[in-house]
What does this fold into?
Amino acid sequence: MSKNHLKLKALLIDLNGTLHLGSEPTKGAVQAIEKLRKARIPFIFCSNSTKESSSQLLSKLGEMGFRASQEELMTSLSACRQLVEEKGFRRPYLIMSESAKSEFPSSSSSSSSKDQGMYDSVILGLDPPSLSYDNLNKAFRILKSEPVSQSQSSSSDKNEKNGDDRKAVLIAPHKASFQQSPSTSSLPAGLSLGIGPFVHLLEHATGERALIVGKPTKSFFELAIQRLQHNHGIKIGEGEIGVIGDDIQNDLGEGARELGLKRILVRTGKYRPESEQTDHRPDKVYEDFAEFVDDLI
It folds into this structure.
């Protein structure tokens, strides 16, 4: 007999910090996903990761033992790509890893002598080597319609400096201040800077607000719910959908609350005891994802 105390019919599941930590699954997570499949509880994997493309992320999940398909995965990078397509941006300046850049195949982001600097948008991803002063300063110049090539510097028309009469737009997948990182050669495992501080840097310097498209925006969760309903041919009320994550703000934040999703926090990944000391407490808290699934099924 199903325990399903929360009366959930579908799930939106965070990845890093919830199902896995770096390249290691959290305890019992692989088996928990299989239990959901056996119980026929539909779900979508929802990731704010900007380090790799969707295909590489799926490959990484497979290596850890998780079965996952492209239709079951939604990422903040894919949401960025969709926004670029909807807005008709043809030349975004991409600050992200080479793998993440492959998520934007139709964008001519490489510079040639002819079109150097003619960018219509800036998109940030979390790739430490790419977040250099030179790259961030170039992004700043693009957003301020300042020249970024020698050919532009001779232009007297302000609008011609960035190759268009439309001001470039700053796009970011999310504003997470920090992330849980595995140990490296220089630092032990622990919290590390996220993409948020770099987004705030450009916002502060330019006086412009970034368009945020990943979790926890309402639009991202709406897209995920649409994907759920399309994949399974079912209609699900928002109150029957649970969103599970280790970040009370960026996994379970504003958009999830607006839509009335059931918000489940797990004590893994970037979770810290103070995570529960918030004005918007989660509906339930579990030690890990496997414990949540055991309570659900």
